[in-house]
Amino acid sequence: MTGSAAPKPPISVCFQMTQMTTEPSDDYLRDFQQLVGEIFRLNGMLLLVGEQLGQDLDISVARWQAMGILHAQAPLTVAEMARRAGLRRQSMQRTVNRLREQARVEPRENPDHKRAPLFRLTPRGDELMVELLQRQAELTGWLTNNFALSPDDIVTTSKLLIDLRENGRSA
Fold first, then answer.
1. Helix (H) or strand (E) segment spanning residue 163
2. Is 89 within 8 Å of 78 (Cβ atoms)?
3. How many Cβ atoms are within 10 Å of 33's Cβ, its own excluded?
4. What is the pLDDT of residues 16-57, one digit of tens each?
């Protein structure tokens, strides 16, 4: 097949799917597809804004995410960080390597696994996280300005997204 793309596998090949008990209506499919599209657009906007917010600090969105994971719960292995971020270990390893080059994270011996060190933020990484958290707070204010979004709305929306993600993992 020269010049043509390989056929895409059906979704059942990509995921271990269980049989649906009912067929969704056309309206349901359309509305869900719109939701997914809005999630993609919001993600794209957040990535773009995040890159701009971290540019003067020499921090990419990927490095910001990794540092945020360690800030919330360190020490962690690269594999644990990747699972929390929903990324492949190799991708997170590249990010952690760059953070090590910048002296923002450091490895520590892992008593449970000799070849998988535990990582934590360095004092320099902690200082940077203070600035990043301030910028994140400002971004939150900018995104939610003049928007009637209650704390309960945020919790409900977050739970819905977590449930969708978890259901996708087990489908």
1. helix 151-170
2. yes
3. 10
4. 555 667 888 999 999 999 999 999 999 999 999 999 999 999
By CB neighbour count within 10 A (0-12 exposed, 13-18 middle, 19+ buried), where does 59 fall? Answer: buried
| DSSP run (H or E) holding 119 | strand 118-121
Give CA 166 to chain center in angstroms.
14
DSSP state string for 77-109: -HHHHHHHHT--HHHHHHHHHHHHHTTSEEEE-
**CA distance to 43, 57, 84, 127, per residue, from 132 (Å):** 18, 9, 19, 9
The sign of the CA dihedral 21, 162, 55, 96 is negative
Task: Specify the DSSP class assigned to residue 16.
Answer: -
Under a CB-based contact definition with an 8 Å cutoff, are residues 120 and 74 in contact? Answer: yes
- C-beta of residue 110 within 8 angstroms of C-beta of residue 77: yes
Tokens 């900018």: give the residue: 142
Per-residue confidence (pLDDT) for residue 95, from 0 to 100: 98
pLDDT at 18: 59
Cα separation, 83 vs 88, in Å, equals 8
